[in-house]
Design a protein that fits this description.
alpha+beta, three-stranded antiparallel beta sheet, 2 helices, 7 strands, elongated, binds zinc ion
Amino acid sequence: MSDLKLCQGPDCHTYHTQDRLKGMKGSKTYQTRRRSSFYYGQGNFCSMNCYNDWFNKFGEQAINHFGRTTEPKHLTEDNAWQKTWDWNGGYDNRTYVYRNGITKEQRPLTESQYNDDNYTLNT
Ligand SMILES: [Zn+2]
């Protein structure tokens, strides 16, 4: 039982659901959900609600702690290549291409290059 995880939502225990209501008659309490796995927030939250509660309470501190973005980031021509399809020949004759989102240049791409996550023209 020790590998059960607790939902990290700060208000998880305040939601009135039957599965959260635990204890003996007369001393029942709503409790933070405890499960072997959760779907949300990389396995830390039982619901989107709890995930959002966490961010509403701690998000500002977390951003400040890990580094707030204070300047716009730039995607340059060198890194603006995206794998896509060329639809000029219609759906059946589509070809795989690399398209540069800034220069609009297109370069041919094989299907295996398209599917290879390590293959990139970005520098
Ligand atoms: Zn929760």
